[in-house]
Design a protein that fits this description.
By secondary structure, the chain is α+β, with helices and mostly antiparallel strands. The protein is built from 19 helices and 17 strands.
Length: 508
């Protein structure tokens, strides 16, 4: 009897063990299916999946090219005779070196990617649905499915921007004001992406040094940093005054050296403590501070904030490059209601007003485009390996900043600046082409200290049939920069770039 019970227990245990093993194998099968099929995309995207990363790195990668066909990023086969110990067959290269670094970004094996290399990785790697449909060998084949990213940038204008800016810290942005296409965007300091895509152990050290550089070469100051705009902001204040009926072309401002806003004892002075006044055209042409401080106060906190909102302040700019900084006006209507003196100072672009050079070019473009601010973009289209279009960017309006009537008035005011005002010294274009402009000098530290100032100019040309809008920004890093006004320092740079751009045939 005991023996029978023992055999029963043994048989029962075997049955339980067998059932458990079958269940475990079932669970394992389900999990493997989940990992290999359902979770495939997640696993592929996981940064810890080194095999996927290595496989993708060792494939042909598509090119990034300018509108006129200049290759700014591409992949080249590695010659085994020259690099016998290389574990890879391909090397990412940037033929234009630092010229487009803040636009192309970089693509590395172990340190990620940035800018267009990151945002358009699917096209460049050939993994979009359209590219896969054109494949004959499947996802894991060696077939070259790499695509092309074609930009709006013009290489001649971009080189002119770099040449004109020289070794100064700052940026140059050139746009088509009618479409929003960015035609040039150069920032200094910058870097050479070739230095961070080598297949050596020095890449990490190089990137660390760039990240720790206080000048921030990895950030494009053209659109990822914001700065006090100084008198270029008077475009916004004047627009607010015209749109609300607070001022018009017949408005006359008293000649004065200083003016004390309400609820403060601290006076506001014109640049250089000069006496300044006259009608609207005169004070805009000479860039007097006091009339625009008074205009901001008279427009009032609510209407001034509303005006900045129409220009896109305190809102993320819809740009197709990552990390675009939002310009800020520095307060709400409630904040300024309690401090009209602060509103007055903000009326001529000082203290907490912060603008990116890209956004300043957009502000100027809206004047040139009858009050319509277009969304900026650098990617014209993306293409498959077979040159079929994947995505194409169509121009799109973002804001209506002012009426067409106000835009026409602003154009006339800005023409006056270029003809006989603060830009007359340095912005006379070749062939007598008319230009509309506004200069700016943003003082960075309190009166009485050794002054540092940012220098600005923003303009569009031809004034009556605009093809180009430009903003030039020079960072106030030393006394040499601060000794010049925006017109005298930034004006010659704008002239050089616009002369090159206007000599090009009109785009189709």
């Amino acid at each position: 009897m005991a023996c029978a019970i023992f055999h029963f227990i043994i048989s029962f245990s075997k049955a339980i063990i067998t059932s458990a093993l079958i269940a475990l194998f079932g669970i394992l099968f389900v999990q493997l299916t989940n990992w290999q099929v359902l979770q495939r995309d997640t696993l592929v995207a996981d940064a810890r999946n080194n095999r996927i990363t290595v496989r993708e790195f060792d494939k042909m990668r598509g090119a990034i090219v300018t509108a006129d066909g200049t290759v700014i990023a591409t992949t080249e086969p590695i010659d085994p005779a020259l690099r016998p110990n290389s574990r890879f067959d391909f090397q990412r290269v940037y033929p234009t070196k630092d010229l487009y670094a803040n636009i192309s970004g970089y693509y590395t094996l172990g340190f990620g990617s940035t800018q267009l290399e990151r945002t358009h990785n699917d096209v460049l790697a050939g993994t979009t649905a359209q590219q896969q449909l054109e494949s004959t060998g499947g996802l894991f084949s060696k077939e070259d499915l790499s695509g092309t990213v074609q930009l709006t940038l013009n290489n001649d204008i971009q080189k002119a921007a770099k040449r004109a800016l020289g070794n100064r810290e700052g940026s140059v942005v050139v746009m088509d004001p009618i479409t929003g296409a960015v035609l040039a965007m150069y920032s200094n300091p910058t870097f050479d992406p070739n230095d961070v895509v080598t297949q050596t152990g020095s890449v990490g050290q190089t990137l660390t040094a760039l990240q720790e550089d206080p000048r921030k070469p990895l950030l494009a100051n053209a659109y990822q940093e914001r700065y006090m705009p100084g008198s270029t902001f008077k475009i916004v204040t004047t627009t607010a005054g015209l749109e609300t009926g607070t001022i018009d072309l017949m408005s006359v401002f008293k000649n004065s050296r200083s003016w004390t806003p309400p609820n403060t004892k601290k006076p506001i002075r014109n640049y250089g403590k000069k006496v300044c006044g006259g009608d609207l055209a005169e004070v805009f042409r000479r860039s007097c501070n006091i009339p625009f401080a008074q205009t901001a106060v008279n427009v009032g906190p609510v209407a001034m904030v509303d005006a900045t909102t129409r220009f896109g302040f305190d809102e993320k700019v819809p740009f197709d490059l990552p990390g675009a900084a939002a310009s800020t006006f520095g307060g709400t209507a409630e904040d300024f209601t309690d401090s009209l003196a602060l509103l007055a100072i903000h009326g001529f672009g000082q203290v907490q007003v912060q603008v990116t050079p890209l956004h300043m070019a957009m502000i100027t473009s809206s004047v040139a485009n009858a009050g319509v601010m277009m969304k900026p973009f650098v990617v014209q289209q993306t293409l498959t390996h077979n040159r079929n279009v994947i995505r194409r960017t169509n121009p799109e309006a973002w804001k209506t900043t002012m009426s067409a009537t106000t835009a026409a008035t602003m154009t006339q005011l800005m023409i006056g600046v270029a003809q006989s005002g603060t830009a007359a010294c340095c912005l006379q274009l070749n062939g007598g082409i008319s230009v509309a402009a506004k200069t700016g000098t943003a003082q960075l530290n309190p009166e009485g200290e050794k002054q540092r100032s940012h220098a600005w100019i923003t303009a569009f040309a031809p004034a009556q049939a605009p093809r180009y809008a430009i903003s030039v920004f020079i960072k106030g890093v030393n006394d040499a920069v601060s000794a010049s006004t925006g017109g005298r320092l930034a004006g010659p740079i704008a002239k050089q770039v616009l002369d090159v751009a206007l000599a090009l045939p009109p785009s189709k």
